[in-house]
Design a protein that fits this description.
By secondary structure, the chain is an alpha/beta fold. The chain folds into two domains: 130 residues, 3-Layer(aba) Sandwich (NADH Oxidase), CATH 3.40.109.10; 70 residues, 3-Layer(aba) Sandwich (NADH Oxidase), CATH 3.40.109. The chain has six helices and eight strands. Helix 1 crosses helix 4. It binds flavin mononucleotide.
Length: 221
């Protein structure tokens, strides 16, 4: 499965099969986590066979079943931590999808199990990503019309249209899609709107835009 195919077929999955992540897939995820931790100066951790985070009323309210594995998105507190977690977290989500795993970003409907992960004094757990083999594939979300999230002078080049289309497929908290792009030549600005988790959403959406537009076609401003 290509990255673009994974972006198109990914949906949040909240019901999982009662089976552990295979050693091969766990090792692949672990390697990617180490790579992104080094690149983004982050402290993401893969947590396996830990059912307690999704054992509360809150998790049942969120309709989660059999979540026993998740990636804890942790990093040193800083103004851009949320966006970095969104960007590198979504790279992991798409790579998991390519392996045949399923995922769901979770910012609210889980319980923190402090003994399950390592948190230094200056670090923060931003949110988690549930991961495992889904009971289903999830369903496509509703989207805003793409033209409502992009500002430009004149007509839009093909690569911007591709980037925005890919951004509309991105997961956002409560499917809020509170982001916007402004294009000026080959410079693109992405902005987060107001609301819960919109800075995480921004990092996620920027990764999707890069996949659709092609990094070689533009620069972030
Ligand atoms: C930052 C973030 C936090 C989220 N938190 C939750 C959550 O607490 N509970 C939940 O059930 N889904 C959560 N989601 C999943 C969204 O509801 C889901 O991505 C959105 O409805 C779009 O659907 P899709 O992922 O299937 O495309 C979260 C998504 C993001 C990006």
């Amino acid at each position: 499965m290509t990255v673009k195919e994974a972006v198109r077929s990914r949906h949040s999955v909240r019901q999982y099969q009662n089976k552990p992540i295979s050693a091969e897939h766990a090792e692949k995820l672990q390697k990617l986590i180490e790579e992104y931790n080094a690149e983004g100066n982050l402290h993401f951790q893969l947590i396996q066979n830990e059912p307690r985070a999704f054992d509360s009323l809150l998790a049942h309210y969120g309709k989660f079943t059999n979540v026993k594995n998740y990636i804890a998105l942790i990093g040193r507190k800083s103004p851009d931590l949320e966006e970095l977690c969104g960007y590198f977290g979504e790279k992991l989500v798409i790579e998991a999808q390519q392996m045949g795993l399923h995922t769901c970003w979770v910012g609210g409907t889980f319980s923190r199990v402090p003994e399950a992960f390592h948190l230094q004094a200056d670090e923060k757990l931003v949110c988690i990503i549930a991961v495992g083999y889904g009971e289903n594939q999830g369903v496509p979300h509703k989207s805003k019309p793409p033209e409502t999230v992009v500002k430009t002078e004149g007509s839009l080049p093909e690569w911007v249209i591709r980037g925005v289309k890919c951004a509309m497929l991105a997961p956002t908290a409560l499917n809020q899609q509170k982001f916007s792009f402004a294009v000026d030549g080959n410079k693109v600005t992405a902005k987060a709107g107001l609301g819960f988790f919109t800075k995480i959403d921004l990092g996620i959406v920027k990764y999707h835009f890069e996949v659709g537009a092609g990094k070689e076609n533009f620069e972030w401003k």
